[in-house]
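Hi F.,

I've been meaning to write this up properly since the lab meeting, where we talked about keeping a consistent format for the predictions we share between groups. The idea is simple: the sequence comes first, exactly as it goes in, then the structure tokens exactly as they come out, then a line or two of notes. No screenshots and no reformatting. I'm using this chain as the first example so we have something concrete to point to.
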Amino acid sequence: MNTSRVISTSIVVWIVGALFTWLTCGWLFNWVYTLPPMIWLSPDVMSSAANLFASNVITLITSFLFVIVFVIIQRGIPGKGINQGLSYGFFIWLVGALPGLATMPFYMTIATTVVFYWLGQSLVLSLISGALTAAIYKAK
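Output, unedited:
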């Protein structure tokens, strides 16, 4: 395992994920958060320094875990190069985001449109993260 490559790949995955989330949730599709019921914290609370710091630390940790798991199991992931990363991203989404998000309307009062948006957004981000991980970590 190449530690410096794991760290650099994790940081790139984290930055790209943050930019993608900002572009989609914060701008392009922010209208989904205006759908009733309004369950979100106020914009002041969500953009507070403490919340921004905590969410960035958590997403950096999850980016690191995403890369580490890829490195550990890469021999068992089908495909080569970026296709291997796309497979990995899809499998992570399939066992991670899909079950949690798909069941959300059954135990939370949340707009179904938001759930479908999150399913699509998390799939795209998982695929991008997987492709980046395979491309950067395996680059020599």
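Notes:
The mean pLDDT is 94.
Residues 104 and 115 are 7 Å apart (CA to CA).

If this format works for you, I'll send the rest the same way.

G.
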